[in-house]
Amino acid sequence: xxxxxxxxxxAIPINNYLVLCSILFSIGVLGVLIRRNIxxxxxxxxxxxxxxxLLLAAFSAYRNDATGQVFVMxxxxxxxxxxxxxxxxxxxxxxxxxxxxxxxxxxxxG
Length: 110
Fold this sequence. Notes:
There is one protein chain. By secondary structure, this protein is an all-alpha fold. The protein has one domain: Helix Hairpins. The protein is 80% helix and 0% strand. The protein is built from four helices and no strands.
C-alpha cells in the first residue's frame, strides 16, 4: 500500500507540486494581507502552512527520505498550537470590542 502511494507521487513531476504549492502559498499571503477578519486571516495562515506541508511531503517522497515527513509533523504541531492561541486571542478581542474585525483593535489603545 505505502509503496504504491510513493510510486504514484513520483509519477507526477516535482514541478507540478512546486507550482501548486506556490499558488496555494500566494493565496494564503494575499488572504493575510487583504482580509480584515481574524478568522479569515487564521485560515490563510493555515493555507500557507498546508502548502509547505504538501511540498515537504512531495520532496520527501521524491527523494525517498523521511526527513520531510518529520518536518511535516512538526509543522502540524505548530499549526495546532497556533490555532489554539489564535482562537483564544480572538475570543478575548471579541469580549472587549464585540467585533472580530482587525480595525476594531484601534479602540484598545487607551
